[in-house]
Specification:
Order of helices and strands: HHHH
Number of domains: 2
Distance between the termini: 110 Å
Strand content: under 5%
Largest sheet: none
Helix content: over 70%
Shape: elongated
Radius of gyration: 42 Å
Length: about 160
């Protein structure tokens, strides 16, 4: 009796399993297809994020370039306006205006040199370490002032060479 029931039931179970096999394979195929689609979508989103960031960087660079151009134009216009005002005031004003920068530069450098040499001499007279004096005198702010005055001359020459 087991053969009759077992054979029929076993055959039905095997038949049922074989009929379910294509559905299970389709389900597994859809699952892997959805995972693939999700992975592709994530890669596409990352690509779009990168493209967007590149575009924002381009816009920022263009804005920065426009600002730099505007600053140089304003600087050039200010120099031209100052020159025109000096010419309009007369010949003596042009000469006085042209002498201001060199006089101030020489004055600051001479004052700095005299003060430094005086302090160095005093340090030598009281038998102190000159390295301490150098640390006290050559502060970052003072060196920035001297650097700015000196760099102005080189910047002015560079701008004149470029016609600005």
């Amino acid at each position: 009796m087991f053969e009759v029931i077992g054979g029929g039931v076993l055959g039905s179970l095997i038949g049922g399993l074989l009929r379910l096999a294509p559905e299970v394979l389709k389900w597994l195929d859809r699952k892997s297809e959805r995972e693939h689609e999700l992975a592709m979508f994530e890669r596409q989103v990352d690509l779009e994020k990168t493209r967007g960031q590149i575009r924002l960087d381009e816009i920022g660079a263009q804005r920065s370039m426009a600002v730099d151009t505007g600053v140089l134009d304003a600087f050039s216009a200010a120099i031209n306006q100052q020159a025109e005002m000096a010419k309009a005031a007369g010949g003596w004003a042009v000469k006085a205006s042209a002498g201001v920068r060199p006089i101030i530069t020489y004055w600051v450098w001479a004052l700095y040199s005299a003060a430094f040499l005086l302090l160095l001499w005093i340090t030598w007279q009281v038998n102190r370490d000159p390295a301490q004096l150098v640390k006290l005198v050559l502060t970052a702010d003072f060196m920035a002032l001297l650097g700015a005055i000196t760099n102005y001359w080189f910047l002015d020459r560079t701008l004149k060479a470029r016609g600005l």
